[in-house]
Amino acid sequence: MLGRVGASPALGIASRTVAAIVGGYALANLGAILLAALLPLERGEAVTVALLASFSIYTAVALWVFATRSAWRAWLGLLGASAVCGLLAWLLIGMAS
Asked: Transmembrane residues, as ranges (predicted)?
């Protein structure tokens, strides 16, 4: 619906805004979890470094969402990247237990 000709520009902007806020938050947190699991540091240090990196991830995602050609591409990219990060983090944390 958002990629169609004649769709309201305001709807596309609203969708991108929600994608940047909600999807960016989810992807930044999943990226931080994955990064903390991958870093060869002590647990507390790995979590601290990963959480600091999540601010950069969130900013990059918010910029990327508004740079894509359509809101659909933004949502699909966020869902795909979140699924990959979540699956890898789940596998890594499960293997470490």
From this structure: 18-39, 46-66, 72-93
